[in-house]
C-alpha cells in the first residue's frame, strides 16, 4: 500500500506542472495584457509609463522560459500574489470563500448519496417495478434539466410564491436547501443509474448463485456482497464530482448569490484578475487528484478483487 500511495503521489507532480504550464500559456496567449488588466481593475488610466512599470514589476519583460519558472517557483511556495481587484493576498481571498463552497458541496453530495444509493439499489432488486420506473423518471429529469433553470424554478415556487426558503445568501440551514437540491438532482440521476446497472450486473455473477445455494440470507448477499462491489462505479463518480464541487459550483453560486469560490472565480474572469485565475486552476487540479486518490483507496478496501498493483484479480 505504501508503494502504491508513493507512486500516486509522485504522479501528482507532472500533472500539476502540466496544469501550470497550460494555464501559463493560455494567459500569455490571451490578448489581455496583465499589466493593463491590473490598471483597469484599479480604475487607473493605463499610460505607457505605468504599463512599462507594471510589466517590469510582474516580470513580463523577461523571456517566457524565465517567466514560467518564476511562476512555478511562486506556486510551489504557495505564493499566488495579490488580487488585482482587492490588492490582498489571493490565499486570504480563497480562505475566506472556500468554507462556503465546502459546506454547499458536502451538503449536496450527502443528499445525492442518501437518495441515490437506496433508490438505485432497490430499482435493480425490484426491476420493472413501480420504484424502478420512478427512478428512471427521476434520472431522466435530473439529467435533462439545466441547473440554472432548475435553480430559478425552485426560487420562483419555494422562495417567491410559498416563501419557505430564502432567495440568496448563506447563514441558516434554510439557505442550503434550494442550492443543495439544485446541485444534487443531476448527481442523483447519474448515481442512481450507475448503481442500478452495476447491481444488475453483479446479480448475474456466479458468486451470488453460489451464496444462495449455500443457504445465505438474501439480505446478507445483497448488502455484504452485491452492494459492496456494485458501488465501485458510483464511488468513481463521487471522486470526480467532489473535486468539481469543491472547486466551485459556479452556476449555482451565481443563481443563489452564494459567497463561494466559484462565484469569486467568475468575478475574477470578468475583472481579468489573473492571480485569482491562476490559483483556481492549480487548486482545481490538486483537488481532483486528491479526491480520485481517496476514492481509489476506498474502492480497494471495498472490492477485494482489486489489488494494490493496479490490476483486477479474480
Automatic annotation (TrEMBL):
This is Nickel import system permease protein NikB. It comes from the Bacteria. Keywords: Cell membrane, Ion transport, Membrane, Nickel, Nickel transport, Transmembrane, Transmembrane helix, Transport. It is a multi-pass membrane protein. It is found in: Cell membrane. The chain crosses the membrane at residues 9-29, 102-125, 137-160, 172-191, 226-252, 280-302. The complex is composed of two ATP-binding proteins (NikD and NikE), two transmembrane proteins (NikB and NikC) and a solute-binding protein (NikA). SUPFAM superfamilies: MetI-like (SSF161098). Residues 98-299 form the ABC transmembrane type-1 domain. It comes from Planococcus shixiaomingii. Belongs to the binding-protein-dependent transport system permease family. OppBC subfamily.
Amino acid at each position: 500500500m505504501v508503494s502504491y500511495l508513493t507512486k500516486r503521489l509522485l504522479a501528482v507532480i507532472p500533472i500539476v506542472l502540466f496544469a501550470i504550464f497550460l494555464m501559463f500559456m493560455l494567459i500569455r496567449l490571451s490578448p489581455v495584457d496583465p499589466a493593463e488588466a491590473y490598471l483597469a481593475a484599479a480604475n487607473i488610466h493605463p499610460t505607457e509609463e505605468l504599463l512599462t512599470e507594471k510589466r517590469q514589476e510582474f516580470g513580463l519583460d523577461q523571456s517566457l522560459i524565465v517567466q514560467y519558472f518564476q511562476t512555478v517557483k511562486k506556486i510551489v511556495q504557495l505564493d499566488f500574489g495579490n488580487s488585482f481587484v482587492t490588492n490582498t493576498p489571493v490565499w486570504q481571498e480563497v480562505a475566506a470563500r472556500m468554507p462556503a463552497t465546502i459546506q454547499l458541496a458536502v451538503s449536496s453530495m450527502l443528499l445525492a448519496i442518501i437518495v441515490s444509493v437506496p433508490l438505485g439499489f432497490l430499482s435493480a432488486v425490484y426491476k420493472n417495478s413501480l420504484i424502478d420506473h420512478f427512478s428512471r423518471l427521476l434520472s431522466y429529469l435530473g439529467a435533462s434539466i439545466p441547473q440554472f433553470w432548475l435553480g430559478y424554478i425552485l426560487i420562483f415556487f419555494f422562495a417567491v410564491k410559498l416563501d419557505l426558503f430564502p432567495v440568496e445568501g448563506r447563514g441558516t440551514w434554510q439557505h442550503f436547501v434550494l442550492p443543495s437540491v439544485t446541485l444534487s438532482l443531476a448527481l442523483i440521476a447519474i448515481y442512481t443509474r450507475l448503481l442500478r446497472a452495476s447491481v444488475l450486473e453483479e446479480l448475474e455473477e456466479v458468486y451470488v448463485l453460489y451464496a444462495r445455494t449455500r443457504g445465505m440470507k438474501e439480505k446478507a448477499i445483497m448488502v455484504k456482497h452485491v452492494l459492496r462491489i456494485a458501488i465501485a462505479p458510483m464511488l468513481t463518480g463521487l471522486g470526480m464530482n467532489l473535486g468539481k464541487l469543491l472547486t466551485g459550483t459556479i452556476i449555482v453560486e451565481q443563481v443563489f448569490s452564494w459567497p463561494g469560490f466559484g462565484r469569486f472565480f467568475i468575478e475574477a474572469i470578468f475583472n481579468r484578475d489573473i492571480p485569482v485565475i491562476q490559483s483556481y486552476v492549480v487548486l482545481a487540479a490538486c483537488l481532483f487528484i486528491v479526491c480520485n486518490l481517496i476514492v481509489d483507496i476506498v474502492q480497494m478496501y471495498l472490492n477485494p478483487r482489486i489489488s494494490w498493483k493496479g490490476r483486477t484479480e479474480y
